Amino acid sequence: MDWTCGQMSSILGHGHPEIVKTIQEHAASLDHLYSGMLSPPVIKLAQRLKEVLPEGLDKMMFLSTGGESNEAAIKMAKVYTGKFEIVGLASGWHGMTGLAIAATYHSGRAGHRPMVPGNHQIPAPNAYRSIFRHPDGSYDWETELDYGWALVDRASCRSLAAVVLEVILSSGGIHTLPPGYLKAMKAHCERRGMLLIVDEAQTGLGRTGTMFGFENEGVVPDILTLSKTSGNGLPMSAVVTSNAIEKTCREQRFLFYTTHVSDPLPAAVGLKVLEIIIRDDLVARCRVLAQKLHTAFSNLQSGYGCIGDVRGRGLMCGIEIVKDTKTKEPGMELGARLSKNMFDLGLSANLSAMSSFGGIFRIAPPLTITDEELDLGIEIMEKTFRMTEGTIPLYSEDNTNVQDVMPRL
Questions:
Q1: Residue 113's pLDDT is what?
Q2: What are the percentages of helix, strand and coil residues in the chain, rounded to 5?
Q3: pLDDT for residue 112
Q4: Contact assessment for residue 315 and residue 367, using Cβ atoms and an 8 Å cutoff
Q5: Which of 53, 86, 248, 350 is the residue whose CA sits 20 to 30 A from 294?
Q6: Tens-place pLDDT, residues 161-173
Q7: Are 282 and 367 in contact (CB under 8 A)?
Q8: Which of 366, 32, 33, 396 is closest to 202 using CA atoms?
């Protein structure tokens, strides 16, 4: 079983029969066009997507990858505001191309020549590890955010154009923005005449229990980028913005053009993905499954001292492996062994070998997963923790209460 949907993309699972049929039909008829032409799948997808988006996200352009969509969004923000400085979160990941990598701080910057000038970073939310604390020990994200902006304001040459962020920092460790964070960030942007770009490559289309992750906060971004989940694994992405921003950018001769902009085949797949999610009520289904999954992971954490933190939202979860829960030292080597053992038992749950991931499992099963498949995956994970040396069991084998909570294979 694939519990990361490939590269966090195949939100309907692999080989979905309706997706396969759509690909076959369009590969046999119309898969690619001159970039200046619009085909029926593109128009229909734009219309359907607009129906599920809030007012203020009205105009869209379809591209191929998440990096492309963020590249276009950042360029659009610079053209619209007439400014050039971009602010990102310190653990964000937005792509590997020029403007996108310049706003990416998770990794990929080493050995590089100077980035595009005018980029700033602020601390990324991390309730588990942040040094910003209230007197009672709880996470003080407001002070952390204000501190980050104070540094940006000192470094800025007063040409701040936009903030770009994810609602769940996936590569950064599955850190969900704290309640109120997105509203506070939007307020910081408005005070400085900046746009807010929300990158929903992985959280878009139901993954978090709402159609879009930003809906949890009641904040509408100025520019929204979609990718990964939009094509169920095929290269399909989108940039969405308001009528007003699009009009100004058009007047300022904004141009973003690729060979595969508005290609009909990926647009047809994107349309089918959206249709299935709405028709089968998979957003509501996600909320039901998520409750079960998060409860299971919390129970797992209570049984093993190597699990430092369990976090996430919807069917997007993080399990952080540590050597010691007091020091919080990352358990990279143990995490790698756990990942291998899970794979050998039939479950693929992503744990990157990159040190910047810090031994964190990124878990995102498809929205189409059955209850039986979910139960089996949970059982495989529990068996893996039980059979792997160094997981620091917090129970004895004859503890029937713990065994009741965590079923054995």
A1: 76
A2: 40, 15, 40
A3: 75
A4: yes
A5: 53
A6: 999 999 999 989 9
A7: yes
A8: 366
pLDDT at residue number 318: 95
Task: Using alpha carbons, list the distances in angstroms from residue 169 to 118, 120, 375.
Answer: 22, 17, 26
Q: Are 178 and 125 in contact (CB under 8 A)?
A: yes
Rounded to the nearest 5 degrees, what angle is found at the Cα of 202, between the Cα atoms of 201 and 206? 110
The phi, psi pair for 67, rounded to 5°, reads -60, -40
Catalytic residues: 93, 166, 199, 202, 228, 362
| Contact predicate 207/16, CB 8 Å | no
Task: Please report, as a single letter, which amino acid is at residue 216.
Answer: N
The gap from C-alpha 398 to its chain's centroid, in whole angstroms, comes to: 41
Buried b (16+ CB within 10 A) or exposed e, 366-375: bbbbeeeebe
Instruction: Output the average pLDDT for the chain.
Output: 93
Residues in contact with 241: Cβ distance below 8 Å, sequence separation at least 6, in sequence order: 57, 58, 59, 60, 73, 76, 222, 223, 224
Q: Find the largest Cα–Cα distance for the chain.
A: 73
The arithmetic mean of pLDDT across residues 255-270, rounded, is 95
* β-pair type (85-89, 119-122): parallel
